[in-house]
Amino acid sequence: MRGMSRRSTALALAAVAFLALAPLPAAAAPPAGACRDPEPGRPVVPQVPWAQQLLDLDRVHAHSTGAGVAVAVVDSGVDADHPQLAGRVLPGRDFFLAGTLPGNFDCESHGTAVASIIAAGPAEGVAFRGVAPDARVLPVRVSDREFTDGGDPIPIDVDVVSRGIRYAVDEGARVLNLSLSGYGDYPAIRDAVGYAQSRDVLVIAAVGNRQQDGGGPSFPAAYDGVLGVGSVDISGARSRGSQVGPYVDVVAPGEGVLAAARAGGHAYWTGTSFAAPFVAGTAALVRSAWPQLTAPQVAARITATASPARGGRGSAEYGAGVVDPYRAVTERLAAEGPLAMPPVTDPPVDEAALREQAWWQRAGSSAVIGVGVVALAIVVAAVWALVAPRGRRSRWLAARRTALPAAPARVEPPDEVFLFPPPPVERVRH
């Protein structure tokens, strides 16, 4: 019996060691048949992304990491098995497929990329990380693919988006990221956004990427109280497609930004869809550091602390400027507006002082004239002292000047002058 016990123990230890070395199965893999053509995994990118360098996230993380704040990502789902999202993604819900599936899987990486910009955690050998790595992501799946096989955008069901927004609010999300936009003002989405705002949820939306097509109102970014986010490139210029209008409240990196991809690895993404999560992550940092602030106050803090952009503050292209997570978290803003400047009043006129000043001005002018007259007299006297003796000697008659001696005639040298004796051949010729 003792021998059998030792053998069982050895087998058990071997099994534990095998499980420790073997990769764990994906806990949030897409259900069978959920993805028609899922995107493959991508390679890991270890370099520091330009957006993370610009926002200097290490500096702000000393003050806030977004702990205790849930951010809803209403998108294509989120791959909860990505190494930098593992443990940071709640189950969520799938509103795209019928049934009660969770939203923590992704077929196309769009939602995974958005979620990683918000809350990706650190990973060894990888410089990329999210704006609020200790925030929690609530995935709300409302779409399957972003584009058709022909490259055309796939419309998202308005009712599905509306139900997804309301679900996120009821689940306790304090920040809502909507990386979607359209020209239509649909009552169902408008009412859902209003429902979120009535529950003190800050709604952040991408302004869209169709400016080259003429632009136009972008919803839900154009709704009152929604923080509309545009995109800038590495040089700080507005991305070509980033839409322009009064609904652009702030801008963030959105051109060639690095983010996670489903099934592991990273990819580069472009569009206002990926600028919005930089602002959503900043909102999570602020709500964690300043829990007493309301959603409108958080939005006001984000716009008030934005860095100046090319278009100037309040422009239709850049809004208040480029989001600055560090300033949004650390700066203390006055609750009151600036104090009014007191009215400017002219002091009473001092007549005696004016008379005295006028007297001194007249006296000064007289003194200057007197000094000028004296100086002129001195010059005239000096000239007279030089001229008078000569005039008396000549009896003031004109005299003829002595002729100058004739200049000696100039002797021109011959055309050819030898400074040294000529060579022997030439001497013979002479």
Class of the domain at 47-330, according to the CATH hierarchy?
A: Alpha Beta
Mean pLDDT: 84
Major β-sheet profile:
7 strands, parallel
Strand content: 5-15%
Q: What spatial form do the alpha-carbon principal axes imply?
A: elongated
Total number of β-strand segments?
Answer: 9
In CATH, the topology of the domain at 47-330 is named Rossmann fold
**Arrangement of strands in the largest sheet:** 2-3-1-4-5-6-7
Q: Whole-number radius of gyration?
A: 42 Å
Assembly classification: single chain
CATH homologous superfamily of the domain at 47-330? Peptidase S8/S53 domain
Keywords:
430 residues, alpha/beta, Rossmann fold, seven-stranded parallel beta sheet, two-stranded antiparallel ribbon, 11 helices, 33% helix, disordered N terminus, cell membrane, Peptidase_S8_Asp-AS, transmembrane, protease
SSE diagram, text form:
Layout: H1 2-21, H2 50-55, H3 57-60, E1 70-75, E2 93-94, H4 110-119, E3 136-141, H5 158-170, E4 175-178, H6 187-198, E5 202-206, E6 227-232, E7 250-253, E8 257-260, E9 266-269, H7 276-289, H8 295-304, H9 325-330, H10 351-393, H11 424-429
Parallel strand pairs: 1-3, 1-4, 2-3, 4-5, 5-6, 6-7
Antiparallel strand pairs: 8-9
Helix pairs in contact: 4-7, 5-6, 7-8
